[in-house]
Specification:
Enzyme class: oxidoreductase
Oligomer: single chain
Radius of gyration: 20 Å
CATH class of the largest domain: Alpha Beta
GO molecular function: 4-hydroxythreonine-4-phosphate dehydrogenase activity; metal ion binding; NAD binding
Low-confidence stretches: none
InterPro entries: PdxA_fam
Protein name: 4-hydroxythreonine-4-phosphate dehydrogenase PdxA
CATH architecture of the largest domain: 3-Layer(aba) Sandwich
EC number: 1.1.1.262
Structural class: alpha/beta
Number of helices: 12
Helix content: 25-40%
Order of helices and strands: EHHEHEEHEHHEEHHEHEHEHEEH
Number of domains: 2
CATH superfamily of the largest domain: Isopropylmalate Dehydrogenase
Strand order of the largest sheet: 3-4-2-1-5-12-11-6-7-10-8-9
Strand content: 15-25%
């Protein structure tokens, strides 16, 4: 067995018709990655060879049998196959059930390895939700799939900006979401005291793992101007305000509800370490406007480490050699940091 003290991170290839393979290939020769972890890829070896050629990466893709003894370096990319040849004739940029199936199997395999303690974390390249559904796997995304695989009832998504990336919080800035992959109309019915308190707890716990002793959590209002004392909606009075009080009573340094249009400015300027947004776009748009290509998707509540890039498969840009890679570097660095934290 390999005796390196560095954490082993499994990087899932994502949807082969999208930018996942080339994003992985595009960061592989970054020496910083190999200083902080021992990465391996779960996917289709030949697809990874094509991606390396596309990104002009002078690295040998080596098929491996297990996540045990392998060598990873800027010139050696170990790949644990999860597919035979089903992807070799796929068309770039086209949603396909075959790519959805392989992407699904890679995530399942990585989660199994992590749960078994054979790896210390997983980093996922983006999958295509339409391809995932076409393959018969009806999950809204990685977050819900991993929560089921891990048997985790309390979970959530956090978008995270590392310290110094468009924010002044000492350990970076995280944005957790009370509701996630739901329609906006449905999300309004899912916002509850219990759901908000849970996300405050998860966000605070994650920021502790990332180095903040007493995380400051700003909780977003739902309605314009924070509801204007009930004039524009009473969810702040009935639900969000009471939830913040419950979180405070539990020892969480939570503040809110705060008007969403100014909350992220305060967080960017260092007043908060984490923000709890009420629905997907309330959190995603604000944080991605700060630094979309450096953001990391972190799954909260799992017994394993999972991070990802914060962008999608970008089917319109795939296999042109132009995909942005900063997000994958940040995702690997964050996973390595979490793998080393208690």
């Amino acid at each position: 067995m390999h005796d390196s003290p560095l954490p082993v991170l499994a990087v899932t290839m994502g949807d082969a018709a999208g930018v996942g393979p080339e994003v992985i290939a595009g960061v592989w020769n970054n020496p910083q990655i190999h200083r902080i972890c021992r990465p391996l890829v779960l996917g289709q070896p030949e697809i990874m060879r094509r991606a390396c050629k596309l990104r002009k990466l002078d690295a040998e893709v080596v098929e491996i049998d297990s996540a045990g003894d392998f060598t990873a370096s800027p010139s050696a990319l170990p790949c644990l196959p999860v597919d035979g040849n089903s992807l070799l004739e796929i068309e770039a940029g086209i949603s396909d059930a075959r790519t959805g199936e392989v992407a699904f199997q890679a995530v399942v395999k990585a989660a199994e390895l992590a749960l078994a303690g054979k790896i210390q974390g997983m980093v996922t390249a983006p999958l295509c939700k339409a391809a995932l559904h076409a393959a018969g796997h009806h999950y809204p995304g990685h977050t819900e799939l991993l929560a089921e695989l891990c048997g985790t009832p309390r979970f959530g998504m956090m978008l995270y900006l590392p310290p110094g990336v468009a924010n002044h919080s000492p350990a970076g800035l995280g944005v957790a979401h009370v509701t996630l992959h739901n329609s906006l109309r449905e999300s309004l019915d899912l916002i509850s005291v219990e759901a908000i308190v849970e996300k405050c707890e998860l966000a605070s716990g994650m920021m502790r793992r990332l180095g903040v002793p007493e995380p400051r959590v700003g909780v977003a209002a739902l309605n314009p101007h924070g509801g204007e004392e009930g004039l524009f909606g009473d969810e702040e009075i009935r639900i969000i305000g009471p939830a913040v009080e419950v979180a405070q009573a539990a020892g969480i340094h939570a503040t809110g509800p705060l008007p969403a249009d100014t909350l992220m400015i305060a967080a960017r300027d260092g007043q908060f370490d984490a923000v709890v947004a009420q629905y997907h776009d309330q959190g995603h748009i604000a944080l991605k406007l700060l630094a979309m290509h450096s953001a990391v998707n972190v799954t909260l509540g799992l017994p394993i480490v999972r991070t990802s890039v914060a962008h999608g498969t970008a089917l319109d840009l795939a296999w042109q050699g132009i995909a942005e890679t900063n997000g994958m570097i940040a995702a690997i660095e964050t996973a390595a940091k979490l793998a080393a934290s208690p």
